[in-house]
Specification:
Layout: H1 6-48, H2 61-71, H3 80-89
Length: about 110
């Protein structure tokens, strides 16, 4: 049996593409629902923490949750300076590729 040609082949190709799009759309909708649930739970957790970090401009529930997750209970720090020194020591270090064999930063060169 020969493969269909012309309009029949085109219709079949379009039908297959449509079915793939429908499956993809279903996946996107499922992910969207999961994101909605996660966002709601995150907002509730941040609200329950009674933090004031969300009063800062640009800090919403997601950023607040990240800060709270990294810092933990801020009352464990005796002073602002203690908190600042701890926060500064946690900053990410540059990647190993950015350092030379001597351990000093690699020179900045353009391409």
């Amino acid at each position: 049996m020969r493969a269909p040609a012309g309009p029949v082949r085109t219709r079949r190709q379009l039908a297959v593409a449509y079915l793939h799009d429908v499956a993809y759309l279903h996946d996107v909708e499922a992910l969207d629902r999961a994101i909605t649930v996660a966002s709601r739970e995150l907002s509730e957790a941040v609200t329950e923490s009674a933090t004031t970090v969300t009063t800062l401009f640009g800090v919403g529930p997601v950023v607040a949750a990240k800060i709270l997750g990294q810092v933990g209970d801020v009352r464990r720090f005796s002073t602002k300076a203690h908190f600042a020194s701890t926060a500064a020591s946690r900053r990410s270090r540059p990647p190993a590729a950015a350092s030379s064999a001597t351990g000093s930063p690699a020179p900045a060169t353009g391409s």
